[in-house]
Amino acid sequence: MRGGDVVETVKQRMIREAAVALARKGLQRASFSEVLEAAGAPRGSLYHHFPGGKSELVLDALALTSERVTQGLDGVAGRPAAEVAERFFAIWRNVLALTDFGAGCAVAAVTVAAETPAQLDAAAAIFRAWRDKLAALLAAGGVEDGPARALAATLVSAAEGAVVLARAERAFEPFDLVAEALVASVRAARKAQPRRARRAPA
After folding, report:
1. Residue 119, pLDDT above cutoff 50
2. What CATH number labels 64-192?
3. Rounded to whole angstroms, what are the CA distances from 118 to 53, 114, 131?
C-alpha cells in the first residue's frame, strides 16, 4: 500500500456497492446478495455489519450518496453562482457518463419506493440538505437569499428529472438542454441584482 492510500473496510465496501445498486436498479430490484458479492463480503455478513439488516444498509448508502454530492459542491464555494449550478449538473452528468446511462440518483430511487418511514425521512433530509447547500453557495455567489432558495430547489428537481430523461433516451441531449437553461437562469438572477450604491467620499 502506498503512503496516504485509504483501505476500505468490508462494511464501507458494502455501503458503496449498495449505493451503486440503488442508483442502478432502484430499491425494489436491488439485489443485496449481489451487493455482498461485489463487496467481497461473505454470506451472512449483512447482519454482522448492519444489525438492522437491509434497511440499515440502505440508510447508510443514502448517507454516502449525500456526502459525495456535498463534497462535490465544496470545490465551488465562493465561486460565481453560475459555476455552482454548472458543478451540480456536472456531478450527475458524470454519473450518467461513467455508467453509460445505467445509474441515476440513489436518493430519488429510494424516495419513489420507500419501504419504511425512516427511508423516506432520510431521503427528505438529504434533499433538504442539498437545497440548503446550494442556496448558501448561490447566495455566496451573488444571488439574493430569496431567489437563491427558489433556484436551489429548482436545480435539485430539474437535475433529478434531467437524469431520468437522459436514462430513458440514453442520450445527453435532454440533460444538457435542462442544464443550459438552468445555468442561464442562475446567471440572469445574479446579473439582475442591483449594484449597491457606493458611498460618496467624505
Report:
1. yes
2. 1.10.357.10
3. 13, 9, 20
